[in-house]
Amino acid sequence: MESSILKSPNLSSPSFGVPSIPALCSSSTSPISSLLLRSLNHRTAAGNFRISCSLSDSSPLPSHSPRRRPDYIPNRISDPNYVRIFDTTLRDGEQSPGATLTSKEKLDIARQLAKLGVDIIEAGFPAASKDDFEAVKTIAETVGNTVDENGYVPVICGLSRCNKKDIETAWEAVKYAKRPRIHTFIATSDIHLKYKLKKSKEEVIEIARNMVRFARSLRCEDVEFSPEDAGRSEREYLYEILGEVIKAGATTLNIPDTVGITLPSEFGQLIADIKTNTRGIQNVISSTHCQNDLGLSTANTLSGAHSGARQVEVTINGIGERAGNASLEEVRSENLLKCYEFFVMAIKCRGDHVLGGLFTGIDTRHIVMTSKMVEEYTGMQTQPHKAIDGMLKHKGTYEIMSPEEIGLQRSNEAGIVLGKLSGRHALRDRLNELGYVLDDGQLSNLFWRFKAVAEQKKRVTDADLIALVSDEVFQPEAVWKLLDMQITCGTLGLSTSTVKLADSDGKEHVACSVGTGPVDAAYKAVDLIVKEPATLLEYSMNAVTEGIDAIATTRVLIRGDNNYSSTNAVTGESVERTFSGTGAGMDIVVSSVKAYVGALNKMLGFKEHSSTLSKTPLETNNVPA
């Protein structure tokens, strides 16, 4: 990248006017496209984190000292360079196939997001189901009331469509937080108005205005409005509807590129145009929400921030929902929200140089733990990247950020090799260096698993430890637990399996079955015990290290034959829930059964919680508009 880019007058200050961002096809490369086009198709992995950007100056980047998070005011930020992080992992992220989360898992992730320092947690879509309502309410009551020593407490947000029932339900869920927010939306593009809403532009403006006013009448002082499919909406109409919701009391205007169709130059110009032409825009916060259909979501988000947006809506690991019938692998590789680990670190390493001094309140040291927690709970595995081989004479020659900044330690500097003679303290120290902070109970359970592996392997690697942590810590609440199993298989006859499980009361159950292979036989034996019909949708296995003695990790995705469904926030359609499970072990069949039992536990936990909630009527204020 030429150093002249750094001298551009458009980059010297956080201008809120129309920035000069050349088109991507131009011979003059824009700062946003230069920074991000080389990071496309990347994913975050707990062990490897890469953003490709460079400076003409060969000296290492200066350290970025933490800057004070401004006091929270819904419609204003005292520091014009501060960018709020709006995390929607628990709402948009859970729409991913197989990413169903239990209430406990949602609460765990919300607590971890608070440690990370996100400004707003969109905890869910309360009107989707009673389970979603209770999960959002619990997060509001707990995480939304936990204030740290600096006075930080995250805003807890609930999503709603533009109707009174949704808005009332969202308010009833989030109102227990110290800083509650309602986020309501309605489509504004011509194609959505014609085919989805079947309403005129004037009707949609009236609905949006009335529903924002209704949300404020519930004594909610923090209301966000989103014009769905803003990227394809007619500009003058956008200015008009946004101006009307501002007058009705909206405090944040979120501009979504719902179908991921815009380029960075286009999206940056869209934000700039809205800030120039919308009446009252100076009295609210502008926000972005970009999909990744063309692989440009992070670039679009940075372009929007450069153009004056001061809130960005993002998810951990880039997980997110996409309408249509794409397979799980297509959803992973093409239709994700931006991964805000990339956004945050791009701001951290280039905010002062290229983006006019932009900064966030994220504590990047918690990125690895948060990423791993979301990966294990959702079953949406991040794509690994091979690290640069060899010893660098000077880290600054290729390294723009250190592993320590995101919560990792360099294994070659840690100097710890774990084996069968290693004790608890050595195990705890290495886990801490990997970003895992476990309580005494979790460490004790993990220690005995570690010793069992160490007896069979000369050296226990970091990858082995990560697999063991995933298998012991990031598991759903146990309805059933695998105790023992025995398999007979080969070419001389059908495979047979004997499986022993313990239920939640500790009672042991044994079943035998035959199958076309060892895994099939074992799964059928589990089904005989659990008696909860399910269909196996996906099965995958990986070795975490090289060698015949490697630990195997298994991931399965199941769908209950009974109807477990929720409402899709965007389309309003009923969506069948799927449940993922993971397992790890040196025996591949044991690993497979653990994964299957884990998925069943998640499904049964969801069923039990939903049954409990169905006996409790959902209360709302029924406040008139």
Describe the structure.
One of its GO terms (cellular component) is chloroplast. Pfam families: HCS_D2 (PF22617), HMGL-like (PF00682), LeuA_dimer (PF08502). With about 625 residues, this protein is of the alpha/beta class. It folds into three domains: about 85-375, Aldolase class I (TIM Barrel), CATH 3.20.20; about 415-470; about 480-610, Double Stranded RNA Binding Domain. The protein has 18 helices and 16 strands. The chain has helices at about 30-35, 105-115, 130-140, 165-175, 190-195, 200-215, 235-250, 265-275, 295-305, 330-335, 340-350, 365-380, 410-415, 425-435, 440-455, 460-470, 520-530, 590-615; strands at about 85, 120-125, 155-160, 180-185, 225-230, 250-255, 285-290, 310-315, 480-490, 495-505, 510-515, 535-545, 550-560, 565, 575, 580-585. An eight-stranded parallel beta barrel has the order 1-2-3-4-5-6-7-8, surrounded by eight helices. A three-stranded antiparallel β-sheet has the order 9-10-11. The chain has a three-stranded antiparallel β-sheet with strand order 12-13-16. Strand 2 (about 120-125), helix 3 (about 130-140) and strand 3 (about 155-160) form a beta-alpha-beta unit. The longest helix has 27 residues, at about 590-615. The radius of gyration is 25 Å and the shape is globular.
